[in-house]
Amino acid sequence: MSRRLLERGFFARHALDVAPDLLGCVVRHDGPDGPVAVRLTEVEAYAGTADPGSHARMGPTARNAPMFGPPGHLYVYFTYGMHWCANLVCSPDGEASAVLLRAGEVVEGVELAHHRRPAARTSRDLARGPARLASALGLGREHDADDVCAGGPVVVLPGPEGSAGRVRTGPRVGVAGAGGDAGAFPWRYRLDGESTVSAYRPAKPRRRPSA
DNA sequence: CCGGTGATGGACT
DNA sequence: GTCCATCACCGGA
Length: 211
Fold this sequence. Notes:
Elements: H1 8-11, H2 15-22, E1 26-31, E2 34-47, E3 74-79, E4 83-89, E5 97-108, H3 110-116, H4 130-137, E6 154-157, E7 167-170, E8 188-191
Antiparallel strand pairs: 1-2, 1-6, 2-5, 2-8, 3-4, 4-5, 7-8
The protein binds a DNA duplex through residues 44, 46, 53-55, 58, 61-63, 77-83, 85, 87, 100, 102, 119, 129-132, 172-176, 178, 203-204, 206-207.
C-alpha cells in the first residue's frame, strides 16, 4: 500500500514555491529502531546566495555543499553546539536553496519518538521546532545529503489531505534581519489551526547595540 | 501562559 | 574570537 513518493521535479523549483506545497506532506524515516513519520505544519524557505539568512550566503563551503547540489536531497546541519536541523534541498543543481523543516505532527512511531525525545511531555511537543523535529525523526549527521527521492530510509510522501486555504505566511524565526530586508518577503509558511506550529520569536541579539 | 537565560561545539572571519 | 536557521528549564503571573 506504499504511497507514491514526491519526485525530484517537485523539489526542482524555487524554495518559495516548494515550501507551501510541502505543508501537509509527510517526512518518514525508517530507521534501525523502526519508522517515525511527521506531517509538516511549518517550514521556512532559504533562497539563493543573496539571502542574508541562508547558510549559502557566503558561497559554497564544506558544510553547506548539499545546498548547492541536486534537489531532493537532505541538508542536515549542526547548530548551537547540540542540535541538528534538517532541510530539503530545492532548485536546479548548482542553485543554492532549501526548505527548513520547522515543525510537524508525529503521525507514525509516536512511542519511538517519545523515546528519542524524553523531554517532550506531550505528543504535541515531539516535533514542535526544527531541532525537535529532526530529533524525533532520528535525523543527524549521517543523513546529510541523503536522497529522499530514491526510496532510501528517508522519504517524503504527499499529504493525506489538501492544505489549500490554510497556508499562512510570516517572517522567519531566529534569523537576524528577518524584520528588515530579509522579512520583506514572507518566507515562513505554516498551516493555520495547527497546535504543533512553533511559537514565533524574533532573533535576539546576543550583544546589545551600544546604548 | 509568558519571558529570560545557560548550555555547548563547529563553522567561519 | 564571534556567531549562531535552538532547546530545556526556571520563576513569575
